[in-house]
Amino acid sequence: MKIILPKLGANMDSAVLTKWLVAEGEPVEKNNAVAEISTDKVTMEIEAPEDGIVVKQYFKEDDDVPVGAVIAEIGSAAQQSPDPAKPNKAAAPEQDAKLAASPSARKLAHKMGIDLSVVKGTGPRGRIVSEDIMRYANSEQAAGEKKEAAGQLPEQAQVSGNTPDPTVLAEPSVQREQAESYRLTRIEKLSGERMLQSLQSTAQLTLSRDVDVTGTLALLDSLKSAKQARITFTAVVLLAVCKALQVHKRFNGKLKNGEIIIGENVDLNVAVATEQGLLVPVIRELQSKSLLSVSEALARIVDKARGGKLEADDYATGNFTVTNLGASGVDTFTPILYPGQIGILGVGRILKRSWVFQDNLEIRSIVSLSLTWDHQAVDGYPAAQFMKSVAEYLETPGLML
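Above: the chain's sequence. Below: its structure in C-alpha cell form.
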C-alpha cells in the first residue's frame, strides 16, 4: 500500500517532509501518523492507510515533496528489501537498533560517534530527532569530554624544556566560541517572503487613531457577569470591523486589474502568534454572527492555530485582516498588508489616559488603532472614513449589537 502526499489546497503544489514519525522496518497501525509535512500555510501529519510495516521511505526529512508523490510504502515484513545505500544494521548494537530515532538522527549520531542510548529524545513519543543529537553534542558532558581530550598537549609540547605553541593551545577555545544562530521555521521564512512581496507590489500607507473604549470595556464586564462567558476585546474589534466593511465596501474587496471585486461575505483573517511562527487563519461570514458567536469562533480558531490543528480551509484569504499586539505591550505599529487584500487593522494595548469626555477631563481607557491600506485601491479620505466608522462602533458598542 502506497502513501501519497495529498493536495491540501488549491494553490498547493508541494510540501516539506519535516519529520518521519516511523522509521523503515517499524510497524505502524492504521490511522496512526507516519510522517509530518509542512506547507507555507499548514503543518499536519500523514496517516497510515492500513496496518503493516514501513518497508520503504522515498524521501528524506527536509525534502520538498511534490503533490501526488509516493512518500512511503506499507507492506508485510517479508516485503521489506535491504537498501544497499544504508549502513549494515547488524553491525550496530542491538540496543541502538531498538531505540526510536529518525533516520536522519541515526545517520548524524553514527557520523559523530554518539551512542543513541545516552541521548534523550524530544520527538513524538520520546523519539530521538536530529536536534537531540546536536543538543547532546553541545551539552556539558560532551563538551567535558572534548575539553579533556583537548587538554592533552601535542607530543612536541610535552618534551622537557619546550614551551607549548600558544596558537596550538588556543585553537580548542577558539572553536568553542561560536556565534549563536537561529534557524527560521518554514512558516517564518514563507511569511517573511509574503510580507516582502506585499510591500513590493502595493502602495502601502498607514494612519493611526486613538479611540476611547471605556464603554466597550464596561459592556464586556456586564456581559461576563450576565452570561458567565468571557468575550474578548479582539472579538469586539472584529465585529466593529465587520460593520464598517459593510458600509465602506471597497475595503471588503480585492484589487484585480484595476477593478475592486467586492466580497459577498465578510471573511476576516486574524493574525495568531504560535510557536511555529505567525499564522493568519480566516473566520467566515462575520456579517451573520452575533458578538458572542464571533468570540466563540475566534476562540476556536486561535486554539486550532496554537494546537497545530488548522485545516487547509482555515488558511483561505479573507477580505481584510486584524492583528492585535496589545497583549505584547505595543501601543502603535505599522502592520503590513496580507497579500491580496486592501486593508489591515492593527490594534495596540489599552491604556488609562487623561481624556476629555463630554467637556470634562477624565481618566478613560484608550486604545490606538493603525490602519494600513493599499493606496492603489483607496485614497486617503475613504480610508480615514473607514477608520472613523470602526472608532465610532468601539466608542459606542450599542450601535452594533
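The chain has two domains: 2-137, 188-400.
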